[in-house]
């Protein structure tokens, strides 16, 4: 979502005649687009702000947008008085105000609007992988999560607006689209005629576009994987056979305290249904270890669920207490050392699973999307349907955007292969 927001901001500045620079001391405007999901991300923002204020031109405009802006609000101006603007994730379309009035201090952390999607210009040329936000915010209120506070309640964009964006990216270079939302499979939009659209309707409509060859979506909530959406994996070949379906913990007790009230059996049923809809589907997850009160036994259950589902490409994090969340106030916070030990153990197992899956790809032929060449220029970098990086030798002439690649070798981090066509 932040990559997408950054692209929209860049398009807006480009349309105003600005150019990108990698050198802070050359910049006329510096914008940090920020994430507040864990304390470490927020801390990094403030240490970067400290560095930037010393390196920037004295009259350069300087500010933060995104979730840390929303989390900190006016306090950000107190901590870094040089800041010119602090704009939350739903108000970055207000940026032109600071360009027109560079002397004001601009603060807007309001929620509840989708105007930003309409008010900023689209990129003229789409990257091969285009992100298309379809909803923003989240109604789930997991007790550890700051997102419902920073991005607000769920709002789904009108079906026709999403399709208009999809047609635009298809006409300007996109080959793959990724529908985005904090709770993407909760997408639900009712138009003025009373017709309700779901994520499966968006996928079906987008798949009709000739230029679009691959479709994916992220991030999903387990109980909103409804049968119509699971069925899409059977009927829509453009939908990639890879799904991020965060479970967070394998302990029923911890899930209850996280306010993720689904049963583990239901989660496993959904995974089994997905596998029977499409036998080559693979699942990844997000995990949190060291949630308040998590016992060794709870943690072992997380290891067990990872073993049962055989996740690939997962993300795991130490629980980080966040402001405005219920879990930060819970008793039995877990010591840092225990969190670190559990994370190391889980990570090591998830890496084994990733390596095992990568190795199982050797000998197969996968359709991969071109990303660019490596630093040496001697190799090409592709992305498999499972988001693995696949390296091939450079070819004569122009690299095909979509290539059939025979996988010849694998390690934990990437694959190697030969372009067949
Ligand atoms: N601490 C650690 N990880 C968190 N996540 C969300 N909030 C927290 C937190 N307070 C993780 C979840 C989520 C991912 C985007 O970030 O695993 O799925
Ligand atoms: Fe946060 Fe995801 Fe839970 Fe929503 S479903 S509150 S975004 S972790």
Structure description:
It is a single chain. By secondary structure, the chain is of the alpha/beta class. It has helices at residues 2-15, 39-55, 67-72, 75-79, 95-100, 115-119, 147-150, 159-171, 199-207, 227-235, 252-257, 264-277, 296-309, 336-360, and strands at 29-34, 61-66, 85-87, 106-108, 129-133, 135-136, 155-156, 176-180, 188-190, 196-198, 214-218, 242-244, 282-284, 286-289, 315-318, 365-373, 379-383, 389-393, 402-410, 414-419. Helix 5 links the parallel strand 3 (85-87) and strand 4 (106-108). Helix 13 runs parallel beside helix 14. The longest helix is centred in the C-terminal third of the chain and has 25 residues, at 336-360. It is globular, with a radius of gyration of 22 Å. Residues 138, 140-142, 145, 147-148, 182-183, 221 line the site of iron/sulfur cluster (SF4).
Lay out the secondary structure:
Blueprint: H1 2-15, E1 29-34, H2 39-55, E2 61-66, H3 67-72, H4 75-79, E3 85-87, H5 95-100, E4 106-108, H6 115-119, E5 129-133, E6 135-136, H7 147-150, E7 155-156, H8 159-171, E8 176-180, E9 188-190, E10 196-198, H9 199-207, E11 214-218, H10 227-235, E12 242-244, H11 252-257, H12 264-277, E13 282-284, E14 286-289, H13 296-309, E15 315-318, H14 336-360, E16 365-373, E17 379-383, E18 389-393, E19 402-410, E20 414-419
Bound molecules: 5'-deoxyadenosine and iron/sulfur cluster.
Describe this protein with a few key phrases.
5-stranded mixed β-barrel; binds 5'-deoxyadenosine; binds iron/sulfur cluster
């Amino acid at each position: 979502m932040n990559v997408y927001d950054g692209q929209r901001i860049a398009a807006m500045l480009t349309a105003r005649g600005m150019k990108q620079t990698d050198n802070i001391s050359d910049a006329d405007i510096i914008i940090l687009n920020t994430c507040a999901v864990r304390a470490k991300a927020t801390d990094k923002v403030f240490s970067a702000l400290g560095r930037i204020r010393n390196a920037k031109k004295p009259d350069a405009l300087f500010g933060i947008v995104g979730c840390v802006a929303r989390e900190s609000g006016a306090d950000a101006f107190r901590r870094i008085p040089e800041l010119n603007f602090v704009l939350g994730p739903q108000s970055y379309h207000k940026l032109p105000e600071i360009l027109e009035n560079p002397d004001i201090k601009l603060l807007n952390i309001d929620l509840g609007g989708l105007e930003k999607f309409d008010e900023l210009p689209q990129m003229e040329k789409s990257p091969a992988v285009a992100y298309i936000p379809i909803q923003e915010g989240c109604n789930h209120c997991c007790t550890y999560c700051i997102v419902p506070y920073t991005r607000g309640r769920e709002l789904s964009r009108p079906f026709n607006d999403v399709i208009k964006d999809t047609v635009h990216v298809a006409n300007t270079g996109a080959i793959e689209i990724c529908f985005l939302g904090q709770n993407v499979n909760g997408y639900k939009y009712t138009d003025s005629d009373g017709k309700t659209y779901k994520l499966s309707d968006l996928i079906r409509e987008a798949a009709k576009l000739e230029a679009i060859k691959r479709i994916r979506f992220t991030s999903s909530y387990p109980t909103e994987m409804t049968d119509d959406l699971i069925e899409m994996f059977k009927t829509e070949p453009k939908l990639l056979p890879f799904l991020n379906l965060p479970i967070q913990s394998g302990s029923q007790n911890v899930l209850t305290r996280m306010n993720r009230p689904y049963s583990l059996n239901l989660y496993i049923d959904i995974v089994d249904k997905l596998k029977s809809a499409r036998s080559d589907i693979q699942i990844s997850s997000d995990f949190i270890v060291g949630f308040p009160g998590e016992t060794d036994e709870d943690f072992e259950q997380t290891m067990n669920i990872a073993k049962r589902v055989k996740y690939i490409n997962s993300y795991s994090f130490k629980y980080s207490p966040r402001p405005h969340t219920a879990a930060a106030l819970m008793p039995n916070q877990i010591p840092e050392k225990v969190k670190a030990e559990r994370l190391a153990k889980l990570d090591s197992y998830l890496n084994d699973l990733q390596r095992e899956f990568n190795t199982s790809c050797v000998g197969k032929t996968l359709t991969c999307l071109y990303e660019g060449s490596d630093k040496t220029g001697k190799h090409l970098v592709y992305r498999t349907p499972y988001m693995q990086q696949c390296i091939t030798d450079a070819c004569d002439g122009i690299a095909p955007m979509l290539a059939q690649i025979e996988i010849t070798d694998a390690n934990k981090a990437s694959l190697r292969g030969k372009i067949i066509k």
